[in-house]
Structures are given as structure tokens and as C-alpha cells.
């Protein structure tokens, strides 16, 4: 079973490196451990990459039953509840980008069938780029990401087939460029509404610092604050079905923004998002 | 093969040539766009003034989504630079943004030279002297500045 975002899969390298030799380990303050940490992180990511597609085919929800043991009553009951309302699931890789990847794929897939939202959305994207430049972001590197993003969007508008969209999202280079752009849309909205969002931050960080540490770097997971910002920024409402260990047998959902009519639905299991149909 | 990383590195290189920031330069090595050599000139009015410090920058296919590995090949004396030349700088680790490019990496490292953060030391002696004995600190920095010229001369001597 693989549930969860980055870091929840126990990597063999991590286990072997820190057990029994740990007794011999002496911390050397003048040695650079950051590179080792990054190397280890890369190793974990490669392992996840070799077992999970960035975006999977559409699978029957029955597949989920196998992810949990039959004795696991809480989850088995909740899967039954989900099946009464949804038919299929599309899984995304647990690499910390799963919310953006799931959200992006579900939205563009929807645009394939109904292109009416494209002009409005393009305008939002272009305006955000202008706003980011005004916030001090370099035009040169923004162009790199936004051009790729708008190019994919134009293909969706003109001639893209569902298969081509699927291939685009599984081409790591392009797929990750799309993730960066979604992240930039979030950072833009958070900073432009910094006064409001500052109320939700814990600790001493201000909004800019939060964006530098938790929004812009790849593989950083999405929290409520990111989802609130993204759905508000792009005007694409989303329903999230929360499947966790809570008692009751029913899967609860939350709509972003509240009382909206969701355009897409995602399934949340602790630390991870997939797409529901 | 052209990948997003390689395409972007070509654009970074063109930008660095057309619009070079003051006091830094960099270029890919002859056969490998993923490995760059760079030089940072010590900022004026700082103990690092007149130094010509060499670095290597190693990119992966994940660039610019992930930061490159940057390392000084010239000997350094600085609170946030390790003995092996690697650099303790947040934007090269957990604060990396894909909107950075080679030019912004080099200018950030250049600013770090005169704005060390002694609270996360990579070189304890440098951090201690920086806080407690600025004269001795500057003397040690001056020594590596002079060493950077010698290194420069010997490196450019034909073999």
C-alpha cells in the first residue's frame, strides 16, 4: 500500500543509513550535511518515481479496496460510502506536488469537454504574470514557465486529445513546469492578499517568507491555505472528499470556496490527493 | 537532446552574456552544458575586495525546478562556506524558487560574502572571528584574497 505524499514511504536507504552505525556517528559541525540530505531526498523521490506514474489511467474505485486490509473497517466502510457517489479514481504520484497535479489535470481534462472557461482562465493567468512582475519577480524566468503553461492551454483549446493530455502530464519536464506555474499563481495571490492570509500563519513567518519556504519550492505539500488561495486566484471551485481514520463510516467533504458549485472533485487521504469521477 | 533544463541553461547563458550583473561571470564548460565554471569578484569596500573567486555549478535535469550544486573551487574563509567549498545558503536549499536563474544565484552568493549569517556557521573559526575579532577575521580573508590571485595565475599558465 502506498498512501501519502513525499516522506511517508519508508525509504530503505534511510533506515539502513541511520540504524546500527548510528552509535559510531559523530556530528562534525564543519562538514556539509545538506548535500547528503538532498541526495537522500533525491533517492526517495526516485524510488517513488519508479513505482508511481505522475498521473495514472482512470481506475475503478474498486481498486481502492485492495489498498487497505479487509479488517480495516473504518477505511472499508468509507470506500463503500465513496462508491455510492463516485465511480472512478485517477491516482497521482505522491511527490508533494500531488494537489497541483491532480487539480491541474482534472481542470484541463474538463476544459477538453467544455472550452467555454478558457478565455476567462487565460486572462487570469496573464494578469497573474503581470502581478508577479509588479511584485518583483523576474520577467525572464516567469516567461519560461508561463509560456509553457499557456502553450498547453492553447493546445487544449485547439486540438488536444485526452490521450495527448495524459501524455503531457506524464512527461516530467512539461508536467513539472505546469506545477511551477500553479505554485506561482498561489504565491501571487497570497502575497497580494497578504494581510488577510497572515492571520492563518503560525509562528513568526510573514507571507513572503511562507511563500519562499512552503509554496514556491517544488515538492512542498499543499495545505488548506494553498487550496484556498489557488481556488480563489483562478476561480475554479474544488470539492475535496476527506478519507481519514475518523469514526462514522462516512467520507466528509469540503468545498473551496464554501457554498460553491465544484468544477472538480479530489480525494484526500492523509498527505495525498487523487482525482475522483 | 533538448530538455527543459538544457533549453533553460542556454537561455540563462545568453542572458548572462547580454545583461551581465556587476562582478560575476559564468559559462558552461566546453562539452557539458550541465557543468558551469563561474567567477565572483569580491565586492568593493569589503574585506573580499579584489578577490577573484572561482566556483563550479552542477545542474541536474530537474533544473530550474531544483537548485544546482554550487561549490567554490578557490579557497575561502567565510562563516557560511564549508572547507570543501560548498555553501550554506538557504536559496540553494529549502528556499529555492524555480524563478531564480544562474545570474541570481551568483549575485546572491556575492552578497553573502559581505553579509554572512554567523548563526548557521559552516566554518566555526570564521564565524567566531567575524563576531569577536573583526580585525583577525579581515586578515584571514585578505590572505585568501591574495591566494585567489596566485591560483588565478597558476591556473592560466600554459602547461
From TrEMBL, chain A:
A GO CC annotation given for this chain: nucleus
GO MF term (any one): cysteine-type deubiquitinase activity
Enzyme class at the top of the EC tree: hydrolase
Superkingdom: Eukaryota
Reaction equation(s) it catalyzes: Thiol-dependent hydrolysis of ester, thioester, amide, peptide and isopeptide bonds formed by the C-terminal Gly of ubiquitin (a 76-residue protein attached to proteins as an intracellular targeting signal)
CDD domains associated with the record: OTUB1
Family recorded in the similarity comment: Belongs to the peptidase C65 family.
Protein name, per record: Ubiquitin thioesterase
TrEMBL record, chain B:
SMART domains found in the cross-reference section: UBCc
PROSITE patterns the UniProt entry points to: UBC_1, UBC_2
Residue ranges occupied by any UBC core domain in the UniProt entry: 4-150
UniProt organism field: Acanthosepion pharaonis (Pharaoh cuttlefish)
Name of protein: E2 ubiquitin-conjugating enzyme
Superkingdom of the organism of origin: Eukaryota
Signal peptide residue numbers: none
Pfam families referenced in this protein's UniProt entry, alphabetically: UQ_con (PF00179)
Matching Gene3D superfamilies: Ubiquitin Conjugating Enzyme
Amino acid at each position: 500500500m502506498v498512501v501519502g505524499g513525499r516522506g511517508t514511504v519508508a525509504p530503505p536507504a534511510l533506515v539502513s543509513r541511520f540504524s546500527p552505525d548510528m552509535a559510531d556517528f559523530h556530528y562534525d559541525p564543519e562538514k556539509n550535511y545538506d548535500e547528503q540530505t538532498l541526495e537522500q531526498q533525491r533517492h526517495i523521490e526516485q524510488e517513488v518515481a519508479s513505482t508511481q506514474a505522475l498521473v495514472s489511467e482512470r481506475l475503478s474505485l474498486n481498486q481502492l479496496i485492495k489498498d487497505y486490509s479487509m479488517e480495516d473497517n473504518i477505511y472499508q466502510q468509507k470506500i463503500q460510502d465513496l462508491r455510492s457517489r463516485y465511480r472512478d479514481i485517477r491516482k497521482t504520484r505522491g511527490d508533494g506536488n500531488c494537489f497541483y497535479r491532480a487539480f491541474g489535470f482534472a481542470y484541463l481534462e474538463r476544459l477538453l469537454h467544455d472550452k467555454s472557461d478558457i478565455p476567462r482562465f487565460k486572462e487570469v493567468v496573464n494578469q497573474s504574470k503581470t502581478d508577479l512582475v509588479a511584485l518583483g519577480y523576474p520577467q525572464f524566468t516567469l516567461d519560461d514557465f508561463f509560456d509553457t503553461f499557456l502553450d498547453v492551454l492553447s493546445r487544449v483549446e485547439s486540438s488536444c486529445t485526452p490521450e495527448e493530455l495524459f501524455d503531457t502530464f506524464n512527461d516530467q519536464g512539461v508536467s513539472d513546469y505546469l506545477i511551477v506555474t500553479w505554485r506561482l499563481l498561489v504565491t501571487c495571490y497570497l502575497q497580494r492578499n497578504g494581510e488577510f492570509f497572515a492571520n492563518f500563519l503560525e509562528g513568526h513567518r510573514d507571507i513572503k517568507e511562507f511563500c519562499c519556504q512552503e509554496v514556491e519550492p517544488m515538492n512542498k505539500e499543499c495545505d488548506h491555505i494553498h487550496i484556498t488561495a489557488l481556488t480563489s486566484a483562478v476561480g475554479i471551485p474544488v470539492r475535496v472528499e476527506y478519507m481519514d481514520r475518523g469514526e462514522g463510516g462516512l467520507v466528509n467533504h469540503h468545498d473551496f470556496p464554501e457554498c460553491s458549485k465544484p468544477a472538480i472533485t479530489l480525494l484526500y487521504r492523509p498527505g495525498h490527493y487523487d482525482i475522483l469521477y | 537532446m533538448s530538455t527543459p533544463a538544457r533549453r533553460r541553461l542556454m537561455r540563462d547563458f545568453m542572458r548572462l552574456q547580454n545583461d551581465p550583473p556587476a562582478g560575476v561571470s559564468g559559462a558552461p564548460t566546453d562539452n557539458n552544458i550541465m557543468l558551469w565554471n563561474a567567477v565572483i569578484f569580491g565586492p568593493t569596500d569589503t574585506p573580499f575586495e579584489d578577490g577573484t573567486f572561482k566556483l563550479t555549478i552542477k545542474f541536474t535535469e530537474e533544473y530550474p525546478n531544483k537548485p544546482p550544486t554550487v561549490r567554490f573551487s578557490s579557497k575561502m574563509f567565510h562563516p557560511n562556506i564549508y572547507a570543501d567549498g560548498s555553501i550554506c545558503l538557504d536559496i540553494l536549499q529549502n528556499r529555492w524558487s524555480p524563478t531564480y536563474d544562474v545570474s541570481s544565484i551568483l549575485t546572491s552568493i556575492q552578497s553573502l560574502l559581505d553579509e554572512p549569517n554567523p548563526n548557521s556557521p559552516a566554518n566555526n573559526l570564521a564565524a567566531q572571528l567575524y563576531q569577536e575579532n573583526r580585525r583577525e577575521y579581515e586578515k584571514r580573508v585578505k590572505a585568501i584574497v591574495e591566494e585567489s590571485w596566485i591560483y588565478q595565475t597558476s591556473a592560466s599558465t600554459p602547461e
